[in-house]
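User: I'm curious what two different proteins look like when written out as structure tokens. Can you demonstrate?

Assistant: Sure. I'll show them one after the other, since each token string lines up with its own sequence. Here's the first protein:
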Amino acid sequence: MKTAFLLLSLLFAPLCLFAETFPEISSVFDGSETLKNAQFSAYAKYAGGEEIVSINPSLRLSPASVLKLFTTAAAFDLLGPDFTFETKIYYSGEIKGKKLVGDVYIKGSGDPTLGSARLSSVPDLPVLAKSWADRFKEAGISKIQGNIYVDNSVFSGVLLPWRTSYQNIGNYYAAPSDGLSVRDNSYEIYFAPVSEDGAKAEILKTEPEMSNLSLQSYVKGSAAVRGENTFVNFVPASAEVQIFGSVPLTSAPVKISAAMPSPAAFMADYFKRALEENEIQVKGAALLNSPETYEDKTLLFSYFSPSLKEIVEYTNKRSFNLYADTILRSLSAYGGGSGSAGEGVRKVKEFLESMEIDFSNFDVFDGSGLSRDDIIDCKMTVEMLEKVLEKPYGETFMHTLPVAGDPEDAGTMSRRLKYSSAAYGAFVKTGSLDRVRAVAGYTSDYAGRRIVFCSLVNNYYGRMRQVDEVHDAFISGLSDIGLNKKPAARQVKK
């Protein structure tokens, strides 16, 4: 490998600033005890220019959340940054006086932000439900003779992230990508305080109320844990939920987040209750139903999501799995398909093919990177990111990534690389799974030339922080190219 670095140095000898930098950047991987016997890859090049670092660039590795870059870039390309989801509320029959003699239909669009508390531009679920109820009042409806139906048929297939581990199912970060998502498809479970080691933690309540679920706690108090160490599990589409693990001994209730087994069914029940709380009587039931046609029904009103740009920004900066997996299915649903994850993956491959990128090492099963079976390579990732910069949305997409060292940024990178040349100038998507750490994105050298990079590390031995330090040194080294003399105390280049 040293021979390769020497050849690279000789190749770029006329550009003196490269001669010493390349081996220094590459050596952060070779010199790490944490990466001993691990599988790792690193690749970096100037946008539209020469290679800088190339270590096992085509090695097939798990990317974790770096996969979100492919999902969200394909969405910008196929749907456009200004795309919005439209949830439609219909009714059948007719309004006679103040009575709707017919049924209500909520037709899901795949909007992952419906009723979310994560985006400031989106009303949370109670506010959203009341505003919808007010629209019924404005139409003069105070009684609904029929049922409240929710239609989530815009997506198909298994709605859970495919090939995720059994332990993940039921936790908020592995929530199903429902065609009618609501409240980020999650809810909170509160446990009563536990004061004795090994004593059972009883469930106090859920927020919101989950009347259609049966919850069973196998959680115990533990003096050995500081924070909750629990996982929630359910059989797909089942109302039987089990919680395992431990919570710390405390005098206050402990809260965890869990995934809704059927978000659409919850929404049907919740909205029926919201109508009744707003003095609109509902005689019928709350049910799931997917009519063959809406031509015989009347559109009462539509609700629009924030722009895809805003959704993608939250997806990448917060690395939110649900939004990424929903976007993947939307590539199919709004591209003439059935809204399955598999068809979404094919759309991403078509996106790569359109840019003439070799995607033979792109073998994935979701849009978020939650599955350990997802496989990509660094070279393909860098080529994709490089060609995205040439698109009309290139700069917009780059700014959806976390910004290194910027305390005002929402991403996890805000706490890293604070005192380096990369601070404020590196846009980095991170990825993390058990024994997986990954980074990919953009930075610039000290002269302002744009660099695209990727590094994937699998099956390492040690702490996550130790791998992060290697990656930070890698990114910092790229940003230092052209810096003739490093200051004794690194200053932020803002």
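Here's a second, unrelated protein for contrast:
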Amino acid sequence: MEKYPIDPARIRHLPPRFSWLDQRLVTDAHLRRCGRSAQGLYLFLAVVSDAQGLSYYSDKSIRLHLDMDQEELLMARASLIEH
């Protein structure tokens, strides 16, 4: 079966700086195992990482973007590592 878009002008195009998240975060219940701070940190790191999955943001910068204090950031990171 051939499929055609209803409105070709509305087809999304990937921007030059695109990132994505793996659906297994939901289907394998990874998100459910982490608290909201860890979820936010994971999302932030996934969005800002380069093609090799590396992020060069400092803890201070991450805390500013996510409105976290140092202890919350450390706990969120530990939760991600644990899970």
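A detail about the second structure: The longest helix spans residues 36-48.
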